[in-house]
UniProtKB/TrEMBL annotation:
TM segment ranges: none
CDD domains: PRTases_typeI
InterPro entries reported for this sequence: PRTase-like, PRTase_dom
Keywords: Allosteric enzyme, Glycosyltransferase, GTP-binding, Nucleotide-binding, Transferase
Pathway: Pyrimidine metabolism; UMP biosynthesis via salvage pathway; UMP from uracil: step 1/1
Enzymatic class: transferase
Official protein name in the record: uracil phosphoribosyltransferase
Taxonomic classification: Bacteria, Bacillati, Actinomycetota, Actinomycetes, Kitasatosporales
Domain Phosphoribosyltransferase: 5-208
Cofactor entry: Mg(2+)
Length: 214
């Protein structure tokens, strides 16, 4: 697991998004700044390729270029909050989607929808799942990628908040998957919400509930 450096800037951004009285616009703006940091860190874990270019003064620069086979996969719907930033950072990147919801009676994750590139097994995948509470949804999404032939070592989980329980469970079940997160919470309450928490990330980001009710 790779935790973003807990800088004063990052803590200020977290303070803004965790405030229950934050406006929907503020929540989106500051969340996107954190998301960009997460994606930059995740992209840096990919195997870059060597590339030489000639500079304007006629010299050779021995540099790197992005891997050609990279795909983003968002876990609907909170994961979709990361798509715009990723597409701005990697123009033309392909995006797959997985819809998993927790059964209200059994509390177990259920797969409702998936749409992935047919050749995703040859890609490095950024799996975008902002919330890692129990770890069930992230593991269910990973199973979808595994069934599509994606090796665990080719997956980077991009995560906004994680609980110690979720991290431990995910890491035990998928030790070869790299995890990037911006914060590890104190734990979870009786309703399986992380604390101190952020509320329902998808609802707050997309404005489907008043911020004060999050």
């Amino acid at each position: 697991m790779l935790l973003l450096p807990q800088t004063s800037l990052l803590r200020a951004l977290h303070t803004a998004v965790r405030d229950r009285n934050a406006s929907g616009r503020d929540f989106e703006i500051y969340s996107r700044r954190i998301i960009r940091l997460l994606l930059e860190t995740g992209l840096d874990l990919l195997p870059f390729e060597k590339r030489e270019v000639t500079t304007p003064v006629g010299e050779t620069y021995h540099g790197l270029e992005f891997p050609r086979r990279v795909c983003g996969v968002s876990v609907v719907r909170a994961g979709e909050s990361m798509e715009t930033e990723l597409r701005e950072m990697v123009p033309g990147i392909r995006i797959g989607k997985i819809l998993i919801q927790r059964d209200k009676r059994t509390k177990q994750p259920e797969l409702f929808y998936k749409h992935l590139p047919g050749d995703i097994h040859t890609d490095h995948v950024l799996l975008m799942e902002p919330m890692l509470a129990t770890g069930g949804s992230a593991l269910a999404a990973l199973d979808v990628l595994r069934e599509a032939g994606v090796p665990d070592e080719n997956v980077v989980l991009i995560n906004f908040l994680a609980s110690p329980t979720g991290l431990e469970r995910f890491s035990r079940a998928a030790p070869d998957v790299k995890v990037v997160t911006s914060a590890v919470e104190d734990g979870m309450n009786e309703n399986a919400f992380m604390v101190p928490g952020i509320g329902d990330f998808g609802d707050r980001f997309f404005g489907t509930v008043p911020a004060a009710a999050s």
